[in-house]
Structures are given as C-alpha cells and as structure tokens.
Amino acid sequence: MLNLMNYVQILNNVNTDDGCNGFLFIVRLIRNGLFPVLQIGIPIILIVLGTLDLGKAVISSDDKAVKEAQGKLIKRCIYAILVFFIVTIVSLLFTMVSDIVGDSAPGLTAWSECWQAAGND
After folding, report:
1. What is the pLDDT of residues 86-99, one digit of tens each?
2. Cβ-count burial of 76 within 10 angstroms (0-12 exposed, 13-18 middle, 19+ buried)?
3. What is the per-residue pLDDT across 53-76, written as a single tens digit (0 to 9) for each?
4. Phi first, then psi: what are they for 105, rounded to 5°?
5. What single DSSP character describes residue 104?
6. CA distances from 56 to 47, 48, 76 (A)
7. CA pair distance 28, 12, nearest whole angstrom
8. Class of residue 6 by CB neighbours under 10 A (exposed 0-12, middle 13-18, buried 19+)
C-alpha cells in the first residue's frame, strides 16, 4: 500500500519539462493508443453493422426493408468516414488556431506543443 511519502516521491519524479507539465505519458497514451483504436474500430463496427442490416433485408426479400437498409448503410458509411477523420480535423484546427494566435494564448500553444511531442515519439 502506498503511503503519502510514496506519492510525494512519485510527484517529485514527474518530468515537468516535457512540454506537457508532466502529462506527456497520458497524452501519448491517448494519442497513440486510444485514438487509433477508436479511429479504426468504430468505422469498422459501423460498416459491419450496416452490412448485416442490409444482408437481413435482402434475405427477407422485402423491397421496402432493402431500401431502408441501404439508407442506413449509406448513413453509417458517412458516419464512419467522419469518425475516421475527426481526430485529424480537430488536431489540424487546434494547430492552425495555435499558429494564428501565437503568444496571446499560451495555453493553446502549450497544448499544441504537447500534442506534437506526444506524436513524435
């Protein structure tokens, strides 16, 4: 069991010069671990579910159900594309805003530097 002294030692060993105020490990975990899983996994799940719905509709031989399933599949493919690119779009927007505002918003530029540092490793 960790006591107070152990927590103090852990906090003293945190590298705050990493550009992320000691949170580089967490940012790296999110950027390189969580986001790729979400970015690839969610679109695959959406497309598979849409395909299964369309397959059920085709097997049922109901024209109305097939048209509804086609619409669902198209919507799910659009959602899959949006989910795939949302991380890139948000990162690009924050980087552009950070470059535009410069030193007038130090928190934003620090976020951008931290995000870039996490991606470089």
Report:
1. 878 877 887 787 77
2. buried
3. 999 999 998 899 999 999 999 999
4. -130, 80
5. G
6. 14, 12, 16
7. 20
8. exposed
